[in-house]
Structure formats: C-alpha cells, structure tokens
TrEMBL record:
It comes from the Eukaryota. The keyword Cytoplasm applies. It comes from Pluvianellus socialis (Magellanic plover). Keywords: Cell projection, Cilium, Cilium biogenesis/degradation, Cytoplasm, Cytoskeleton, Flagellum. This is Radial spoke head protein 9 homolog. It is found in: Cell projection, Kinocilium; Cytoplasm, Cytoskeleton, Flagellum axoneme. Transmembrane segments: none annotated. Belongs to the flagellar radial spoke RSP9 family. PANTHER family: MITOCHONDRIAL RIBOSOMAL PROTEIN S18, RADIAL SPOKE HEAD PROTEIN 9 HOMOLOG. GO terms for biological process: axoneme assembly; cilium movement involved in cell motility; motile cilium assembly. Pfam families: Radial_spoke. GO terms for cellular component: kinocilium; radial spoke.
C-alpha cells in the first residue's frame, strides 16, 4: 500500500477482519509521509505487519526512481519511530529457515545455537562468531522470503526502459477478464531466475519492455498439498 493512499486502503482491508486500530492507522498515515521526506524516498509503501508474542513489527519499504532496484526496508514497533533494516543475505535466509515458532516482538532477542542447524553453528564457531541469531536478522530474512514467494505484479503494470530502469506504466488500466485468469499474466516482482535460462527462440515472443520478470506460469506449489 502506498503511503499517500494508506488510510483508504486500510479501511478496505479492515473489512476482512485483519485491520489496524484507528490509532495505528492515524500514526502510520502521518509517520510514513515524514519517513519519505526524511529519507528522501520517491515513494513509500506500507509492506505489512508481522505479529510477535510481545509486540508487532510494522514494515515499510522506501523506493527510488527505479522500482526494480533495491528497496530500503524499515520497521517500527509503534508506527511512529522507524529503524532501517540491513539488506538480506543468503546466510541470513538459510539460518532463519532453521528457526521455528513465533516472533518475540523484540529485535534484540537472540535465538540460541541449539536452534540453529549444526553445520551452521560449527562454521560460526570456526569464524569466531557467537552461534546466535538475533530476531532482527530473522525479520530481515522472513521479509525477503515472503517477497520472493508472493511479491507479484500483473503484466503491464511496470515497464522497463531501454536504459534498464523500471517504472510504473501510467497507461495500465488493469488486466482484461480473459488475461486475469492466466498465470502467465502475473510476474514475480523479484530478480528473474527462469527468464535467464530461456532460449533465444523462447525469448523471441516476449516483449522486453513488459516481459522482463519470471512469470507464475511454471510455478510448482510447495508443501504437502502440491
């Protein structure tokens, strides 16, 4: 949700029973605009909320002119004061996958090495590092995993310029009913992986200005029901 339209968007989301209190909505509406000004972001999106045992993390993303470039992520415990999160690394993601259970709601909380994969713990010992994971690192990794899995945009909503930057398509008015039913009409809004493996013949039918991301067409659901 974009900061400028956040109050109206949260009102709509509240109908599903997963809304925020009027106090939180009011605080977000003003603090996100200040966040955009202070960090000089071109746009600010409210990413969502991760509920912990003793509190919740409210997540925001700051964007620059290139919408596909790295997004700065911030979190708040009270919807007023914001802290910048470090970029996610593959090591963070790998270690976070070993952790189970709910978040505590305390960024400084440390998960003991007994909860970490034995191989990772041994490597940390060899590097002279404490075999612990702070909850802040787990938060960073969890946001990254969610974005990779369900960060999705419709085809045509963003366009790639000849110089390589990505912008919103101001002429996009939504998908037609026919196109909206196709998985190929939706893209993962992350760094493409499968697209790089396509042959030149397969790429010949793609429009480089709109088809520059991995589509959902060949996704295989994971889990017991797949």
């Amino acid at each position: 949700m974009e900061a400028s339209s956040l109050p109206a968007a949260l009102e709509l989301a509240a109908g599903g029973g997963a809304g925020l209190s009027p106090e939180k909505r009011a605080a977000l509406g003003s603090s996100l605009l200040l966040l955009q000004r202070d960090y000089r972001f071109e746009r600010v999106w409210f990413w969502g909320c991760i509920q912990g045992v003793r509190g919740a993390y409210y997540i925001a993303e700051g964007l620059g002119p290139d919408r596909a470039a790295h997004r700065s992520r911030l979190y708040s415990l009270n919807c007023v004061e914001w802290s910048l999160l470090p970029p996610a690394t593959e090591e963070m993601v790998r270690q976070a996958e070993q952790l189970k259970g709910r978040f505590q709601g305390d960024p400084s909380f440390e998960y003991e090495y007994t909860e970490i994969n034995a191989e990772d713990a041994e490597r940390l010992f060899e590097d002279g590092k404490e075999p612990v994971i702070k909850e802040e690192a787990r938060l960073v990794a969890t946001i990254e995993q969610i974005d990779r899995a369900v960060g999705i945009i419709p085809r045509g909503a963003f366009v790639k310029t000849p110089l390589g930057s990505v912008h919103e398509n101001r002429n996009f008015e939504g998908l037609s009913l026919t196109e909206a039913k196709k998985l190929s009409s939706y893209f993962h809004f992350t760094e493409p992986v499968n697209l790089k493996n396509k042959t030149l013949l397969e790429k010949a039918d793609l429009d480089p200005s709109t088809d520059f991301l991995d589509s959902l067409e060949h996704d295989i659901p994971q889990g017991k029901g797949s």
